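From the thread on structure requests for the teaching lab: each student submitted one protein with a one-line request. Submission from student K.M.:

"Model Aspartate aminotransferase family protein from Comamonas squillarum, C-alpha cells only."
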Amino acid sequence: MSHVIHRSLAQVPLVAVGGKGVELFDQAGKAYLDASGGAAVSCLGHAHPDVLAAMHRQLDQLAYAHTSFFTTEVQEALADHLVAHAPGGMTDVYFVSGGSEAVEAALKMARQYFVEIGQPERTHFVARRQSYHGNTLGALAVGGNEWRRKQFAPILMDVGRVAPAYEYRDRLDGESQPAYVARLLAEIDAKFQELGPDKVIAFVAEPVVGATLGAVAAPAGYWQGLRALCDRYGILLIADEVMCGMGRTGSLHAVEQEGISPDLMTIAKGLGGGYQPIGAVLAQRKIVEAMRRGSGLFQHGHTYIGHAMAAAAALAVQQVIQRDQLLPQVLARGAYLQKQLHARFDEHPHVGDIRGRGLFWGVELVQDRSSKATFDPAFKLHAKVKAQAMEQGLLCYPMGGTIDGLHGDHVLLAPPFISGEAELDQVVERLGDAIDKVLAQQP
Ligand code: PLP
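Reply posted by the TA:
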C-alpha cells in the first residue's frame, strides 16, 4: 500500500533502485536501457562519477543558504558558465527548481519589464496549439496541450493561440516550405493585430516541440521571421528550451540553429541532468537593466531559488559536457540514430514520420501512411508501446492520441549523450519489436 499520490492513481509504478550509465534497475534486478532520459532529462546518464564527486564536495561545504541573505560561489559560477555560452545579448540568469517554475518566472519577468518601461497596457501572451510549457497555472495557460489544460481552462488566463509549426500534418499539399512559413507568420501577425500589437507582452514557443508533438522543429526561416515580427511590434520572444535545450539537439541551445537570440529563454531538464531539480531563465540585458533602473528588484522568488546543491550538480554536468566535447558527439550519435531509425522504420506501414535533431527524435505512428489517419485514441497505442517497451527493457517516452484531434501517437527518444552505437542499435531494435508486438494486438 503506497501513500504517495502517483501520476496514475490506478497503479503503483515499479520501484527504481539504481542507475549506472545508460541503464536503470528495478527492485527485481531488471535493467532498463534509458532511451528517453526520463523526459529528456538524464543527458549524462546515471551515477556519473564527476557529477557525484562535485555534489559530495558541495554537500561538505554548504547545502543551502537562502537567497534573501546570501548568494553562493557555486550559483555565481554556474551563472558565469551559462552566460559565457548563451545566445547573443543574454547576460543574466535567474535560477529556479524546474521547467514550470522557469516558465512562470519568464512570464512574470516579461510582464514586469513592460511595467518598468511604462507600457503597463501590455497584458497578453500569444502561444501555439499543441505545445507544452509546464503544469503550474501560468505555464499551463500558455501551453496548448488540451488534454492537460481541459479541466483547468476556466481558471486559466486567456492566451492568444496560433498554429504550431508542424510540417508533417499542417503543410498543405503542393505548398512550398517558404509559403508554409509565410502562412504561419501571417497568422501570428493577424493574432497580434487582433489583440492589439501594443497590448501583447510576449510570444512563447518551444524551438523544437518535445512532449506534445515529439521532436518537431519548425521549418527553416520560421524563427527568423518570428524574431522580426516580434521586433516590429516591440513584443518579447520567449524560447522555452526546457526540454530541447542544453545540448539535446546538438548545439547547447536549440535557437543557435535558427540563428536568432530570444529575449528570454527557459532551460531546465538537461541543465542538471536529473542529479538535482534545477531550471533557469536566461535574460537579455535590456530586461534586467529595466528592472534594475526601475523598481530595483524582480518581483518574484521561491524558497529554493539558487539552491547550492542544485547549482553544484548543474555546474558539474555542464563542465563534463564541455570537457568531454559531448555536443559534437550528440551530433554524430544523433546522425547514427537517425540512420538506424530510417533503416528500421522507413518501410514500416504504420510509421508516418521520423523527425528530430541531435539526440532528440520522434517517430509518429499512423493507421494509414498515405492518409496520415491516426489510430483510434481508445486503443491507447502510445501507452501500450510504453508498457511493451518496458517489458523489453527499454524506457522511451510515447505520447499522444487526443490532442486537438490533429495528431496521433508518437514515441519520443532522448537517449543520454554518452550512448554508444551498440546501445542505440538496441534502442531501435527493442522499440521496433515493442511497436510490432502492440500493433499485432489491434482488434
Ligand atoms: N516546458 C517544456 C518545453 C517542457 O517540456 C516541460 C516539461 O516537460 C516544461 C516546460 C515543464 O517542466 P517541469 O516538468 O520541470 O516543470
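TA comment: The CA atoms of residues 6 and 37 lie 19 Å apart. The radius of gyration is 21 Å.
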